[in-house]
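fold-stage: in
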Amino acid sequence: MFEYLKIKTKLGDWNIVKVNLDPKSDLILRAARQAKQKVKHTIQAGQDGVSRSNKLKLQNQFRGMISEIYALELFKSWLANSELNNWEIIRYDDVRTDDFASPKNEYDIKIQKNGQGATILKIESRSSLTYNRSLTEGINDLDIIGPYISQAKAKENYVDYYIRPLYDNIQEMKAEEFSDFLKKDLINLYFVAGCSKQTMITKGKQKSMSQSGTTYKCLPITQGSDIIQFQKELIADLA
């Protein structure tokens, strides 16, 4: 399911994970099903305040669902390899009971320690496309995306960790063409970096990301941890 790779960046060698995407897999079928349910309850405007077509809303939701689901599977593999058997990993959209109607108390993924007084670590996954960049250029140029504020969301709390999924489109594409590219094997998914809440707070900067009315806390990917270092940091926190 996962292939660990090393590529050259402006900082030298950088470890990443490539996901072996199978459009017919149960994981992607689950993402498609959940995206169709969730998109019914999302606002029409994007973070830039511009109204989106229903197709674009669905494709963006589908893309985010896939990266979350595979992030969950990646964390499961890390726990299995570390033999930390007293933790469980939960993705909110897999266990929610509100039919996707309410954003209250939502989270992407949490790692929860079993037993009384359980410890909980929450992890955020925010994906994007490289569009007209190469994968290496994307890692050099783009950010790990933290909390944001907008006209629709006055505040978003920090979570414990952030992981960065990055989709690399093999040829030029538009966001609403995501499903078509996925079916034709013209897009790849990578997990390229991660960081802790403390790193995001102390090193991150506020950016508009070319979206008027929305401000993100961002950390350049190359100022975070590559995927191997991020794995070590997360597992050390759980040990």
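fold-stage: in (second)
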Amino acid sequence: MENKVSHANTIIKNHIIWSMGAGFIPVPIADFFAVTAIQLDMIRQLSRLYDVDFKETQGKAIITSLTGASVARMGAGIFKFIPGVGSVMGGVALAVLSGASTYALGEVFKVHFDKGGTFLDFDVSRIKRMYDEQFEKGKEVAKDLQKQQEKQQKKAEEAEKDPLSRLKELADMKEKGLIDDEEFILLKKKIIADNKG
């Protein structure tokens, strides 16, 4: 049972990340549909995990019922209409809100399926309160995931700038005959000078 919950958490986390990525799509309506498709896929995978017969039409209806009131989510998309800054600011805000919505949906379905529930006994009005609570928690989860991804990206960029890595890459290029001895010496000096300054 614990393994099933752990697997469900992994499914939810992956779909949060994908939803956040969809939040950066520069066209407001397109990002909404992309996030909905990602959320539907998450529900499909959770259904499979808990051996629940997946109902796509009911899944879409539940998503719409639970997330429809998240007017702030669509409101953030309006920022995308502002030239230049709008797509970046709106994308960041929408990415977090999309991630939070996906987290909340995932948690709701995980708990429902874990208790033996199915699509047939899914009571949206009863579950809505839980969704709203999880949505607030999901904002923090999404922000944390965003920070983790930014740290990983920064590490990757720093590794690219790492002089030792650059020197190894340079030696590989020389060995493969892509650069001659003279170019190797010049580029090596440049890497060392860059690292000092």
